[in-house]
Design goal:
Layout: H1 14-28, H2 40-47, H3 51-63, E1 67-70, E2 74-77, H4 91-105, H5 110-124
């Protein structure tokens, strides 16, 4: 079962935080196809958010094809995003955990580690160049330059 955490100071909408945490759990194999997500009522009781916020997050995940509501039963995971290399028992996770431990031992705070990891990720996975801005074509004025020929 997933346990949601909300950072009310992040500036990120609560429903987006909830949806992101479900995606993370799907990537890490914490949630698997067939698992039931907590009901809106359970989430509301655990983290004191509006039930509509939870439902909006679940609708977002449903739109992405990750979960499906089953009337009277709850919302269930449809598909996983997990990669074997990211599993809890993978060598890569062990290396990442050791690296974070070294970063903490060096005195880095959570935000420092996150910034450093984001920087390394940005270097390894550069974003594509944005498309050029759309510039609408200039409207041409149509002037009536035709002249009527006189019959002579």
């Amino acid at each position: 079962m997933i346990a949601f955490r909300i950072d009310r100071r992040s500036g990120v909408a609560t429903y987006l935080q909830l949806a992101h945490q479900v995606r993370q759990a799907l990537r890490l194999g914490v949630l698997e196809p067939g698992d039931r997500l907590p009901t809106a009522k359970e989430v509301v009781e655990a983290i004191a958010v509006n039930p509509n916020t939870v439902l909006r997050a679940y609708r977002e995940l449903e739109r992405e094809g990750l979960v499906e509501p089953r009337p009277g039963q709850g919302t269930f995971v449809r598909r996983s995003l997990a990669q074997p290399a990211a599993a809890a028992d993978s060598p890569l996770r062990a290396e990442a955990s050791a690296w974070v431990g070294r970063a903490r031992a060096a005195g880095l705070e959570r935000e420092d580690v996150a910034a450093l990891a984001a920087s390394v990720l940005d270097d390894a996975f550069p974003l594509p160049d944005p498309p050029p801005p759309f510039i609408p074509a200039q409207k041409q004025k149509h002037t009536n330059t035709s002249t009527q020929e006189e019959d002579t």
